[in-house]
Sequence to fold (952 residues):
Amino acid sequence: MNNFTLRCFLLGVSLSPALLPATAQAQTPITPGEGAGATTAGSSSTLTGQVTSAQGQVQPNTSVSIISLATSQRRTVQASQTGTFTIGGLVSGGPYVVQVQQPGFRVQNITNVFLKAGEATVLTVTLNPETVAVGTRRSDRTALESAVPVDVVEMSELVRTVPQTDLTQLLQYTVAAFNSTRQTGAGGSDHVDPASLRGLGTDQMLVLVNGKRRHTTALVNLLSNRGLGSVGTDLNTLSSLGVERVEVLRDGAAAQYGSDAIAGVMNINLKSDNHGGSVLLSSGVTSEGDGLATLLGVNKGFRLGEKGFLNLTADADYRGRTTRGYARDPLVSPVFVANNPAAEQAALAAAGKTYKDFEQHNGDARVRNVRGLFNARVEVSEALAFYGFGSYNFRRGQANTPWVLPATQPNEVVKELFPYGYQPEVNTRIHDGAGTVGVVLGRSGPNHWTLDLSNTTGYNRMNYDLANTLNASLGSESPTVFANAGGFQFLQNVTNATANRFFDKVLAGTNVAFGGEFRADRYEIMRGDERAEAEYDNNSLAQQGAQGFSGFGQASAVVGSRTNVGAFLDVEADVTKRWSVSGALRYENYSTFGSAFIYKATTRVKVADFLAVRGAFNTGFRAPSLQQVLYRQITQRPGVSGVVYSGIFNNQDELTQKAQVPTLTPEKSRSYSAGLVLTPTPSFSLTADAYLIDIDNRITLSGLLRPGSGISPEFTQLLANNRVSQAQFFTNDLDTRTQGIDVVGSYRHALGKGQLTVTAAANFNQTRTRAQNIPANFSSLQTDDNPTTNYIDPRQLSLIETGNPASKILLGVNYSLGKFGIGLRNTYFGEVKYYDVAPDPARYDFGSYLLVFKPRTVTDLLISYQPAKALTLTLGAQNLFNVKPNTLNEAASNGVAPGGFASRGDFERYFQNRYGVPSPFPANHDVYPYAPVQMGFNGAFLYLKAVYNFGI
Fold:
């Protein structure tokens, strides 16, 4: 088999050698006039053939294009009802590329096609289904044939042209039901992007890599606007250049895959090419000149044996800081003198400073990544194959917390070290690694059992270090740099066995799968330099602990582990060629809290050739993460008049037990979905799916409980013993209902000599609380007149109900013509609203602003040019029109004022009259004027990408 025929075989295309041009059969060296330089002048040629599926079915109305690499001209036709096509009047010679496209199948590109003068070249094209690996255990289901909605995101083309490079941001602007926004001023969450699906929690989306469970991070999001109180999976630890495609199952699937799959499942398929590769260089900067982002990545495939492969990816990237909107208000956030503008200006002048010198960094943290990725498979025989894949990521993050200033925190300013105050820097070092090894036994194909045995180990470690800070209780002896301020790590090991067989003679085809899984988790909080800890010293007027991040004391340095075993049965049957049903059962038992039994049922009916309807019902669960069970820390919270110290106490802590906070139990869910699949023509498809998800015993972080809460006589003393003024706990306090609809459509059509592609997607969702599960001893807190002392935190409740965009709509238009391509992408983010940080109840007897952020639309423009067949250049702009979300001041004016006042103006006048100074609410609105809500607030980003492909 020569190289050209082999390449066509790998693409799923058979090209009859007897009908090949001589140059293709013999692979003679390309000479000027015959090869890449130009087509050969002479009498016209014809390309003809037939398109079929891998199952031998003809594919009518398939789009077939032939593109001249020399002139970049394109001719496109549609195959007939019998799958045949003919393109005449072509210039003989070559090389040409033939591209074949059909919804539900992978695009086929046949390269190095040469046409003989006066002769017809015949192609027999076999299309491979664009099968999905989530929501089904059959190997031949496509996304459009699935009984549950699945988004398939082809990464190979996306990553080389669009502005984004991080996996979370790539998906943010590609999948309507997916949301991820970079955080700022949120501690560790500045360096790990939280992500969610269908408006649910970060920890309610299960992530798989090549079908195997991916570990979560060790980080608990505590100060963020997204994923507050939850633990998610860090998608950005994987190099996007090494990802072939991402499948997003938008339906509950815990019965199929286990805990966490309440909102859905994301499966990340790594590249499996055994030849070729690419180099990607991307660089860009914001329109304000900051936020320089540069990435260099390399991907290469190698052959292992006859059918095996080894695919390697490595990349490194840098992202600079950004700052937006700082404008310190001297009456609200003074530097030297509070409530006296004249004295403040005099102090600034005496120090030779201006407010510019105290600028608050408000934007993206500085982040550097080094990533590696591999994917391998070796076929020993038709009945034995070994595989393995893994990743490693090192990340260095540098972020800032609010300034510590003499006017607002005099006890934390040590004049010998920082006479004018300081802006603490909170930095992280993150190590993330994972590896899977497995073996597949048995022949593939119908009526053969296969057994997949695998073991996956995943590890995530985050260490903090601090700079430009101090522990004021140590006075001038305090370090200003803490090289080790503590951290945490999480280890997960999963052993899995799955048996699978497709019976083609049972009904119209029946697939049976069953298996078991053993998972072990281990979580540890690690102490660092004790001088950084909040518990270190309490013998001065100064608040204890390093400012910015106060480490973990001896009582917080915990270690815990748990195991669980599970078993499942999954049956999927085509009752007829038009009606399929499936069902799944799963049982899991945890060493810490008991067992769960869940199930799922789906159906799909092909009503007509162009229309199918589908539906599903499932029960699910999410075990409380080990991090939520064990996390304990004394933390610093931003307050109106400085830092307030509070404690997060775990289930094992004496304070938690004395307060009679219930032990954490699993969340449980019931999910319903119904939808339709419309394919009126091969060039157009549309899916619409409605869903309703009920979750019981949802886990959140409680409100701040303070002395006088009336919980127990010992509570106030226990707070004092732990040197905090308030406490929080993880608790199962909510029953919620989420309902919405997803719509996804695509259209492609030959337009002139080019190709037009239009994609659209939309998600509309709403979450409401069905019940509040408040223990009897806390019931009075939820009904008193002060909303800042509620057992259920109003801020977190609002983030759950309305903290995700109420709608998100994507519209993309792409047109390619010869060597040029242009794309325009619009992303509409719906309204977001949530409560601001609550004021200190010791000073104020009202709650916080309900902030309302109005909808925004972001537009991306990208222009591509291919100067050579192996090289693609893309110049573009993300957020072309420099759109930003509402500022906090605007959101406060859009929203609801504290204390039941009819307008913001009424509240501001009340506050001025009562306290004699302007209101500082919403909190930090001058030094943190923007909040990370629907999207980031960096504005326009200009970029250039260059991709060079090997093996073309």
Q: What stands out?
A: Residues 1-41 have pLDDT under 50 and may be disordered. Residues 3-127 form a domain with the Immunoglobulin-like fold (CATH 2.60.40.10). The chain is about 10% helix and 45% strand.
